[in-house]
């Protein structure tokens, strides 16, 4: 079934005639003009010797002209010589090559073409002569030596080939040449010559890869002792250059195959200690595999510790004040139970004193001393060494600028454990004299309390209070101590001295502690007296509330209400609206707890109404003038019933609420009316 294809005819955009018309005659004429002419071959056959000589002479002239025109273009000379070679005119070809060599004797390709011609036509002596000239002039061109030796070997002249190689080796060529010489001797089955070549090669190229090749050669020849000697000599001869992963991996694998496991282990460890971690990943992996196969658990642990030790030392080399790295290294050495190495690490760590005399830079550093002293005392049971460490640490810290209370306390506690009480007291005394801190006082007092030395504790509290004059803590603790000893007059006397000291910060803590102690003693009259004395000093709302809550706890309703009423009257007089509102709110809660409904209703009527007001923000410009464009801020204000102008303000607020309510009602009615009208339409 034929398939019909609908093809769209091309549309002609311009149907006008072309101003240049081409006829069929012109098309045919153009084709005839450009038709290729038939090439007629000429008869170039040479019919006699005279004609041959004529052609040769003509070609030679052409070559000579080209060579004269471009004397240093060696391609013309090579073509010239090869043409003469093709005519079996070897003397002429040699002459051309010689003339070319006079122009460019360093051209390796020219020499090779010359040599290939002599070898191709079996002019062996000529080839040898050219080789000799080439290697004398260009002894560093390995290709001449390779071809020369290969030619002699092909001809069966093995002694001559060996002589060529030996002459070549005198020039100390590259590795490839030595390997070629070795391969030649191996083909000749000259084992001793092979060994001599390898050792000459090692002397000529003293580098790691060369030594490893010699070792592999000895291993292949099953001379294991000689191979081991070469590998040991590698490290002696090359030094730092030999400290590479491939060397240790090869050496260790060699010893492992020979079942010298101890030697292999030492090689692995030496390599890991002397090669950076990032360059010894394969060595570490092989060592781990080795220990899993042939080692014990302790040896595997030593391997892991060794690798971590290297890592920590690298971090310390980058920053000697990296105390986190020092801690990791110290803890690692402690875990290995190697005392000498641990002590060396501690000593190296504590020598890295922070360069800046600021306490925040010393915090991590001083913990090295703590750890060192604790290690000597608890792990090694060396109390004398621990004491010496503490003394050294105290000499290092600049106590005039800052101190570490924990250092003094740990030193004193260490002396207590050593049953040296006088020394412990002396340490605390020196600390208080040089750099007194609250922690030192508290620790010293705690020690004396455990020893039931009350007189000493009193002296310490007195000294504590004298040094820290603005701190209420020593006074409170001192008073509580006297109270615990049933020395009531003493503890009250201490509190009285303290509350009359105007230098103390936060005196409210003293008053609270004094009042709480009197409440515990059930001296309620004294408590009331203290509250009254406190109210003479401050009229803070919290004092009034605390006083009222005290009376509430005793069930003294009338006293409680009287106190709250006094407080409200005073706050009303001072126009402290917010504090007054707080007092009334708490008063309401107290009345609720009493359960007197009449009083509850009465206090509810006193509760203020909170309103939001706006006031101008007071701000000043750079020139000191008042900023008129600072804006306004909102704040809360309180309106108390019964106050002056309060009724008028409340009535005004009621009217505003009613007006707003009526307006909302009116808007709702209008919307309903509009909705009804729409429905009717």
Automatic annotation (TrEMBL):
Q: Which GO terms describe its cellular component?
A: post-mRNA release spliceosomal complex; precatalytic spliceosome; Prp19 complex; U2-type catalytic step 2 spliceosome
Q: Where primarily located?
A: nucleus
- Name the GO terms of the biological process aspect: spliceosomal complex assembly
Q: Does the keyword Nucleotidyltransferase apply?
A: no
Instruction: Indicate the transmembrane segments per the record.
Output: none
- Localization (cell): Nucleus
Annotated keywords: Coiled coil, mRNA processing, mRNA splicing, Nucleus, Repeat, Spliceosome
Any one Pfam family here would be HAT_Syf1_CNRKL1_C
What InterPro entries does this protein's entry cite?
HAT, HAT_Syf1-like_N, HAT_Syf1_CNRKL1_C, Syf1-like, TPR-like_helical_dom_sf
- Which residue range or ranges hold the Pre-mRNA-splicing factor Syf1-like N-terminal HAT-repeats domain? 62-206
Where is the Pre-mRNA-splicing factor Syf1/CRNKL1-like C-terminal HAT-repeats domain positioned along the sequence?
359-530
Using the record for this protein, list the coiled-coil segments as residue ranges, or answer none.
46-100
Domain of life according to the entry: Eukaryota
Its signal peptide is none
Function of the protein: Involved in pre-mRNA splicing and cell cycle progression. Required for the spliceosome assembly and initiation of the DNA replication.
Family, similarity comment: Belongs to the crooked-neck family.
Q: What is this protein called?
A: Suppressor of forked domain-containing protein
Q: Which organism is it from?
A: Pseudocohnilembus persalinus (Ciliate)
């Amino acid at each position: 079934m034929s398939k019909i294809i609908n093809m769209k005819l091309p549309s002609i955009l311009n149907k006008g005639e072309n101003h240049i018309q081409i006829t069929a005659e012109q098309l045919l004429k153009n084709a005839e003009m450009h038709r290729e002419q038939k090439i007629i071959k000429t008869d170039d056959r040479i019919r006699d010797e005279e004609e041959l000589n004529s052609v040769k002479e003509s070609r030679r002239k052409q070559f000579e002209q080209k060579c004269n025109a471009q004397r240093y273009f060696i391609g013309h000379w090579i073509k010239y010589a090869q043409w003469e070679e093709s005519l079996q005119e070897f003397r002429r070809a040699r002459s051309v090559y010689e003339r070319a060599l006079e122009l460019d004797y360093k051209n390796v390709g020219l020499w090779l073409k010359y040599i290939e011609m002599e070898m191709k036509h079996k002019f062996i002596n000529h080839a040898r002569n050219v080789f000799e000239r080439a290697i004398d002039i260009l002894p560093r061109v390995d290709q001449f030596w390779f071809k020369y030796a290969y030619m002699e070997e092909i001809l069966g002249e093995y002694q001559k080939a060996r002589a060529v190689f030996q002459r070549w080796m005198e020039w100390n060529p590259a590795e490839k040449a030595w390997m070629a010489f070795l391969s030649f001797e191996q083909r000749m089955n000259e084992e001793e010559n092979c060994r001599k070549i390898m050792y000459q090669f090692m002397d000529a190229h003293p580098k790691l890869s060369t030594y490893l090749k010699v070792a592999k050669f000895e291993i292949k020849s099953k001379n294991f002792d000689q191979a081991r000697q070469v590998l040991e000599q590698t490290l002696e001869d090359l030094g730092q250059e030999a400290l590479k992963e491939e060397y240790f991996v090869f050496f260790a694998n060699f010893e492992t195959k020979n079942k010298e496991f101890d030697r292999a282990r030492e090689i692995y460890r030496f390599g890991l200690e002397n090669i950076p971690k990032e360059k010894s990943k394969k060595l570490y992996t092989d060592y781990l595999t080795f220990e899993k196969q042939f080692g014990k658990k302790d040896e595997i642990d030593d391997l892991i510790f060794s690798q971590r030790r290297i890592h920590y030392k690298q971090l310390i080399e980058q920053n000697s004040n990296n105390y986190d790295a020092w801690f990791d290294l110290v803890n690692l050495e402690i875990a290995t139970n190697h005392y000498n190495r641990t002590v060396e690490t501690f000593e190296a760590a504590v020598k890295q004193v922070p360069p800046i005399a600021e306490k925040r830079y010393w915090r991590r550093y001083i913990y090295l001393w703590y750890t060192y002293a604790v290690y000597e005392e608890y792990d090694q049971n060396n109390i004398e060494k621990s004491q010496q460490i503490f003394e050294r640490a105290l000499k290092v810290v600049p106590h005039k600028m800052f101190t570490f209370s924990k250092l003094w306390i740990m030193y004193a506690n260490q002396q207590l454990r050593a049953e040296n009480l006088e020394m412990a007291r002396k340490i605390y005394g020196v600390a208080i004299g040089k750099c007194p801190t609250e922690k030192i006082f508290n620790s010293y007092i705690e020690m004396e309390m455990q020893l039931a030395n009350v007189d000493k504790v009193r002296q310490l509290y007195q000294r504590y209070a004298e040094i820290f004059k603005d701190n209420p803590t020593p006074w409170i603790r001192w008073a509580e101590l006297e109270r615990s000893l049933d020395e009531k007059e003493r503890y009250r006397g201490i509190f009285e001295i303290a509350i009359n000291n105007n230098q103390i910060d936060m005196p409210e803590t003293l008053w609270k502690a004094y009042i709480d102690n009197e409440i515990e003693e059930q001296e309620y009259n004294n408590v009331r007296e203290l509250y009254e004395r406190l109210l003479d000093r401050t009229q803070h709302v919290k004092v009034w509330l605390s006083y009222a809550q005290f009376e509430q706890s005793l069930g003294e309703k009338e006293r409680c209400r009287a106190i709250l009423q006094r407080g409200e009257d005073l706050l009303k007089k001072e126009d402290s609206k917010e504090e007054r509102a707080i007092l009334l709110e708490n008063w309401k809660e107290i009345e609720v707890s009493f359960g007197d409904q009449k009083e509850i209703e009465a206090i509810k009527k006193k509760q203020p109404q909170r309103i939001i007001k706006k006031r101008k923000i007071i701000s000043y410009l750079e020139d000191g003038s008042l900023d008129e464009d600072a804006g306004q801020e909102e704040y809360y204000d309180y309106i108390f019933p019964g106050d002056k102008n309060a009724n008028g303000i409340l009535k005004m607020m009621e009217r505003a609420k009613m007006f707003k309510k009526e307006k909302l009602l009116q808007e709702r009615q209008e919307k309903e009316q509009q909705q009804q009208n729409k429905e009717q339409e």
